[in-house]
TrEMBL record:
The lineage of its organism: Eukaryota, Sar, Stramenopiles, Ochrophyta, Bacillariophyta. This is Guanylyl cyclase. Pfam families: Guanylate_cyc_2 (PF09778). InterPro entries: GUCD1 (IPR018616). PANTHER family: GUANYLYL CYCLASE DOMAIN CONTAINING PROTEIN 1 GUCD1, PROTEIN GUCD1.
Amino acid sequence: MKKVGDDNGNHIHSSLTEITSQEILHRLRICSTETPCQCSEETHIPLIRQTETWDCGLACLQMLLHWLRGDTVKDLEAISAGDVVVNDPLSISPGTEKAWMIKFVATKSIWTIDLVMLLQHILTCNRTDPCDEDVNTMQGNGGGNRALQSQQRCQHPPKFSYLFCSTSFLVDESYSDLKYYKDAFSSDELRVKNLFQLARNRKLPLLQTSGISLQAFVDIISKRGVVAVALLDNRILRGSAIDTASSYSGHYVLIYGISYDESDINDARMNSPDENDRSTAHDFCMAIKNPASAETVQFITPWMFENAWRAKGTDEDLIFVAKHILL
């Protein structure tokens, strides 16, 4: 294990071996002996759909926020309809929420590090009232944006922790050949490198590893109050034929549970027409919130998830988020 940074628990680690679920749970401050939650329906997350072709990651963070605050579908409907008390802390509409997120990331070419910086900003706002760290400051540009801050005040979720896991915290120049990255790669490269450096300087919770096993991932997501934003290859998620690496299509989803229900497993197998899917060897499936789908929940096989997650172009990016209940 190679460690970079100080010893306050928020440094970047690099592991040349597969990381264990116990280590990730430790970094999330979740007890590894806690009883697993074996029903995906026990984690209630309202579906928020993406409104553009590029904002699936932001939609996932919106779903995270509403889950952390305990919002229900009815809450979101009331907020959108304006049927809330003026000073209600949940009175910001999903549209307004998305607007300040877009202002924060300041790009339509979203990389996982953009989502991490946004999540860190939310966590920072959760610790200070009002928000004293705006988009320019967080991204290292200085300055202030009080209008943006005022939109974010009182939107603080309960205490939470997160951990960004990836096989690489560098910009892989070979991705410039992938159609998904090609158009914006030259402008993204320096911006993304700077964000990675900023994350290192601020000792954000990042963990570089050679890989996380499927079983370790299942163990983590099975814990109560733990979900993950995952970067997947959307062509695999859609069940599309895969011809060449150049057809990679990145897409963010929120994985919020493991289901052992037979009907859910059958649904997952129906969603995976690939003849190479050998998920009959598994007695579970993944429950996801897909911002590109109108379905409130989608079930996918372990084979589909793992192949979409480990595809070239994803770096196997995962952002684990743990919700901590304050007693």
